[in-house]
Amino acid sequence: MTLAVTVCKGQEEINFKVGYLPNHNYTLTQKQTSQNIITYIASDEILGKLKSSGIENPTITKDTAQIKSISKTGALDGKEFPIYVEMLESNNPRLVSGSKFYGKSIQGTTKIDSISSPSMTEEKKRMLLPLMESMINQIKYPTKKIAVGESFEQKNPMVLPIADVTIEIEINSIYTLKKVENGVGYFDIVQDYIITSATKDYAMEVNGTGKGQIDYDIEKQFFTKFYLEVEMNLQTELEVFSIELQTKSITDQTTQIKKASR
């Protein structure tokens, strides 16, 4: 990950640091909607074979993922504190409702030690444990003073599988602090996407943009709102046909933060 900071003059600034605090409860509600349109470009013979196999052209898929969870942190012990995450509601087949994750936060990094689930096999638990840990620690934000009008830039990888090709994409995100009111820092997000590599030597082109907003609770050092709209187009020429992929997604996430009762 690379980080670039652009400093502009501003009358207000905040101490920006994102992470869990000890002895707090975080109730997260997330809804993600997406639509994918895949168009196949090929000879009539190939398109006929796709149709006979039950593949529509174009193929349009829509999906809505909803998750509600609570994360509870315990007392600070040296440089770490325990963390417990429970899935309260979920239509994600991997993160089933009632699943519980136990671990600890060590200097801002979360380590998941075990999983409890009413329906998950031990094999699925072993597979999900590193995935859940990776999801929590996926994005690391800088710790610094940020003034109104200042921006910082982050680059993060994303893997996109399509057909028999695995495409690695770099997400370039620019966060700009627009204003500070009543203990909240309001950020705008702008993203763009570029291909960094693919597993096969096919001609590919990707262009995409993302726009959104973040509300940052200065005292609690955490985002209370995250909203992002993404549009991405991909074109690739495979061995026997070409594919055009258009994808749109909206992520709408809120987090309620409360100090834990003693």
Topology:
Blueprint: E1 3-6, E2 13-16, E3 24-41, H1 44-52, E4 59-73, E5 80-90, E6 100-106, E7 109-116, H2 122-136, E8 144-147, E9 151-162, E10 165-181, E11 184-198, E12 203-217, E13 222-237, E14 242-259
Antiparallel strand pairs: 1-9, 2-8, 3-4, 3-14, 4-5, 5-6, 6-7, 9-10, 10-11, 11-12, 12-13, 13-14
Question: How would you portray this structure in words?
Answer:
- The chain has 262 residues and is mostly beta strands.
- Residues 1-11 have low confidence and may be disordered.
- The protein folds into 2 domains: 1-18 and 141-257, no CATH class; 22-31 and 65-140, no CATH class.
- The relative contact order is 0.20.
- It has helices spanning 44-52, 122-136; strands at 3-6, 13-16, 24-41, 59-73, 80-90, 100-106, 109-116, 144-147, 151-162, 165-181, 184-198, 203-217, 222-237, 242-259.
- The strands form 2 sheets. A 12-stranded antiparallel sheet has the order 1-9-10-11-12-13-14-3-4-5-6-7. A two-stranded antiparallel sheet has the order 2-8.
